[in-house]
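In the design runs reported in the main text, the only information available to the sequence generator was the tokenized backbone. The following block is the verbatim input for one such run; it is reproduced so that readers can re-run the procedure and compare outputs position by position.
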């Protein structure tokens, strides 16, 4: 899947079209500066019986942030790719009683990943993503993503 361009509007459309749970969760793409993607979701759509954010929603948001930044980067490269999550580790540190705010920043290894993807048509990368609450880390996620060119 290739985004028509590397804009937050294109990513927002892809989330809601290709991954319907993102629409139910109320995920919004807030910003992207080429190295960091910020996405949010309202607590109301993702609340649990404790009146805090549901752990599954937090996981979905961080996983989708990693997927999203790779969609934007492959669009910048002009590549049509299939991106999947292959595994990861999660840590829940604080309950979230407010809007879910997630940031995914590209690692230093991104340039090597992009070269492998361009040269061989397939590459994997480890992305660290997190839920931020009042400047503190409420949740951390380190996910392995595999990207393969489709053409």
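Verbatim output:
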């Amino acid at each position: 899947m290739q985004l028509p361009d590397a804009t937050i509007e294109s990513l927002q459309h892809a989330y809601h079209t290709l991954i319907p749970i993102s629409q139910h969760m109320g995920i919004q793409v807030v910003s992207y500066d080429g190295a960091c993607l910020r996405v949010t979701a309202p607590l109301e759509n993702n609340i649990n019986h404790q009146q805090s954010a549901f752990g599954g929603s937090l996981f979905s948001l961080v996983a989708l942030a990693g997927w999203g930044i790779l969609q934007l980067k492959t669009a910048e490269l002009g590549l049509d790719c299939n991106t999947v999550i292959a595994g990861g580790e999660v840590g829940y540190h604080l309950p979230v009683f407010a809007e879910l705010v997630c940031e995914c920043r590209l690692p230093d290894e991104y340039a090597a990943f992009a070269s492998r993807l361009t040269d061989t048509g397939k590459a994997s990368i480890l992305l660290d993503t997190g839920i931020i609450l009042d400047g503190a880390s409420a949740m951390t996620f380190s996910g392995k993503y595999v990207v393969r060119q489709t053409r």
